[in-house]
Amino acid sequence: MAQRQSNGEAIRALREALGIKQYELAERCGITAGALSSIEHGRANAGPTVIRDLARWLGVPPGAITSFPPERAEAVA
């Protein structure tokens, strides 16, 4: 399985698949739309709290949006 290049790619793909606008997800997570944009484009890293909040609103476990391959994320979590 190919490893993702960044957490942001997974976040953006999940958000778009759910039809959630960037500003909506950012507001739900208590961050700015600019901060979420930076995360999605790989210009900034999301901290553990933001990863947890994003995962909750996207309906996935935090390991699903980390850069670990899924097998490793499950073992670490």
Explain what this protein looks like in three dimensions.
The protein is mainly α and 77 residues long. It has a single domain (7-76), classed as 434 Repressor (Amino-terminal Domain) (Orthogonal Bundle), CATH 1.10.260. It has helices at residues 7-17, 22-29, 33-40, 48-58, 70-76. The longest helix has 11 residues, at 7-17. The two termini are 19 Å apart.
Structural class: mainly alpha
Which percent band covers the strand fraction?
under 5%
Distance between the termini: 19 Å
Number of helices: 5
Task: Output the CATH homologous superfamily.
Answer: lambda repressor-like DNA-binding domains
Number of strands: 0
CATH topology (fold) name: 434 Repressor (Amino-terminal Domain)
Number of domains: 1
What percentage of residues falls in helices of 4 or more residues? 55-70%
- N-to-C SSE series? HHHHH
Reading off the top of the CATH hierarchy, the class is best stated as Mainly Alpha
What is the gyration radius calculated from CA atoms? Answer: 12 Å
For the residues shown, what is the average pLDDT? Answer: 83
Uncertain spans, ≥5 residues at pLDDT below 50? 70-77
For the sheet with most strands, the description reads: none
